[in-house]
């Protein structure tokens, strides 16, 4: 099966061509520069940019895969959750394409697709999903922070999520406090590398709570108060690096501890992680360091597939299409608040 997939739930316009579980092409057009001056994603700007980018991105994906439109067997897109206007632009365009080509259409859940991104590339490259289930999967980005228990293919349960800010949002808001451009996560990662993570003691919210939920807004607020009391720190490059390292260590400690605790409680043999914050070098190192002595297999999304992309949408869509008897409807609507637990198996 050859499938053309789209992802437009937030600020990346992405198209990918998938064939029999393999990614033939994955093209991502990021809008980060467009939204940077506003310090966050502006939904209406995102939707307009998606409309501008969709056709060129689809053409690039087809060309890179050496696939002609008439060779496509199905079209897929993110149905939710996400920004309504952004979702709508990609979802409706994909449905129109499927209608014009007279091919099946499938709309998939964005977070369920994230569960597949650690398996798209890496070692081993061709994913044998079944071999790594059950697992506990951390999905951590600017919009979400959640733990999912993957019991078997298409069977999963949301264990917990953030009660307020996402971890990436915390990186971005702390970055704003210290004058970094949006999104600040990659720059904090870079500044933190030579810094001292124990220089300043920031809270690790909910790290000892018995549930699988997260909370990061209090950590951001404590950085705000700290900077109010130590304004000169912003002019000291050395101490600024220590601050970045200390905040990053607090965020990563919580993510790693809660992921490992869930994996131990559920007795799974494998942990996976995806989402933009999974690019963070300390998080990757700390997850590896914690999983190894616990005898857990760790599978991290490749750095190019951590952030939102259509390859993960297509991989999931293909597996769903292969299992579904009747053709899905072209009249389906987007579901901006779709919960992972509401996705039918
Ligand atoms: O997956 P993504 O593109 O989705 C959302 O927009 O939600 O993730 C973007 C988020 C941003 O908050 C960004 O600051 C964060 O991922 N991020 C990082 C790193 N790279 C991206 N955070 C920490 N360290 C990084 N290296
Ligand atoms: Zn995402």
Distance between the termini: 21 Å
Residues in helix, %: 40-55%
**Mean pLDDT over all positions:** 93
- In DSSP terms (H or I, runs of 4 or more residues), the helix count works out at 11
CATH classification, class level of the largest domain: Alpha Beta
Residue fraction in strands: 15-25%
SSE topology:
Layout: E1 2-7, E2 12-19, E3 22-30, H1 32-36, H2 43-65, E4 74-80, H3 84-101, E5 105-109, H4 110-114, E6 135-140, E7 145-152, E8 155-161, H5 167-177, H6 185-192, H7 217-229, H8 237-266, E9 270-274, H9 281-291, E10 297-300, H10 303-306, H11 310-323
Helix pairs in contact: 2-3, 5-7, 6-8, 8-9
Bound molecules: 5'-O-[(R)-(carboxyoxy)(hydroxy)phosphoryl]adenosine and zinc ion.
Give a written overview of the molecule.
- The chain is an alpha/beta fold and 345 residues long.
- It is 41% helix and 19% strand.
- It is built from eleven helices and ten strands.
- The strands form two sheets. A five-stranded mixed sheet has the order 3-2-1-4-5, with helices on both faces.
- Helix 2 (43-65) runs parallel beside helix 3 (84-101), helix 5 runs parallel beside helix 7 (217-229) and helix 6 (185-192) packs across helix 8 (237-266).
- The longest helix has 30 residues, at 237-266.
- It is globular.
- The mean pLDDT is 93.
- Bound molecules: 5'-O-[(R)-(carboxyoxy)(hydroxy)phosphoryl]adenosine and zinc ion.
- The site of zinc ion has 5 residues, from helix 4.
- 5'-O-[(R)-(carboxyoxy)(hydroxy)phosphoryl]adenosine binds next to helix 5 and helix 6.
């Amino acid at each position: 099966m050859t499938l053309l997939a789209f992802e437009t739930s937030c600020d990346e316009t992405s198209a990918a061509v998938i064939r029999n579980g393999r990614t033939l092409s994955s093209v991502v057009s990021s809008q980060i520069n467009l939204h940077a001056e506003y310090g966050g994603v502006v939904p209406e700007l995102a939707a307009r940019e998606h409309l501008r980018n969709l056709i060129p991105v689809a053409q690039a994906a087809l060309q890179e895969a050496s696939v002609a439109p008439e060779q496509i067997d199905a079209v897929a897109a993110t149905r939710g959750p996400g920004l309504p206007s952004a979702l709508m632009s990609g979802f409706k365009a994909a449905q129109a394409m499927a209608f014009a080509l007279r091919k099946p259409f499938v709309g998939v859940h964005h977070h369920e697709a994230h569960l597949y991104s650690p398996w798209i590339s890496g070692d081993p490259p061709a994913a044998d999903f079944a071999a790594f289930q059950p697992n506990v999967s951390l999905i951590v980005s600017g919009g979400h922070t959640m733990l999912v228990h993957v019991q078997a293919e298409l069977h999963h349960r949301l264990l917990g999520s953030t009660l307020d800010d996402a971890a990436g949002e915390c990186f971005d808001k702390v970055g704003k406090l210290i004058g970094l451009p949006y999104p600040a996560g990659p720059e904090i990662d870079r500044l933190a590398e030579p810094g001292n993570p124990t220089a300043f003691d920031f809270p690790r919210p909910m790290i000892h709570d018995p549930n699988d939920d997260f909370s990061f807004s209090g950590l951001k607020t404590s950085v705000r108060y700290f900077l109010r009391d130590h304004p000169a720190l912003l002019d000291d490059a050395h101490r600024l690096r220590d601050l970045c390292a200390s905040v990053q260590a607090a965020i990563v400690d919580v993510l790693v501890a809660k992921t490992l605790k869930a994996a131990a409680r559920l007795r799974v043999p494998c942990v996976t992680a995806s989402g933009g914050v999974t690019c963070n070098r300390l998080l990757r190192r700390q997850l590896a360091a914690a999983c190894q002595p616990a005898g857990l297999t760790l599978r991290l999304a490749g750095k190019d597939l951590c952030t939102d992309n259509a390859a993960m949408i297509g991989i999931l869509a293909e597996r769903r299409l292969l299992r579904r008897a009747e053709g899905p409807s072209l009249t389906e609507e987007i579901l901006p608040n779709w919960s992972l637990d509401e996705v039918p198996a």
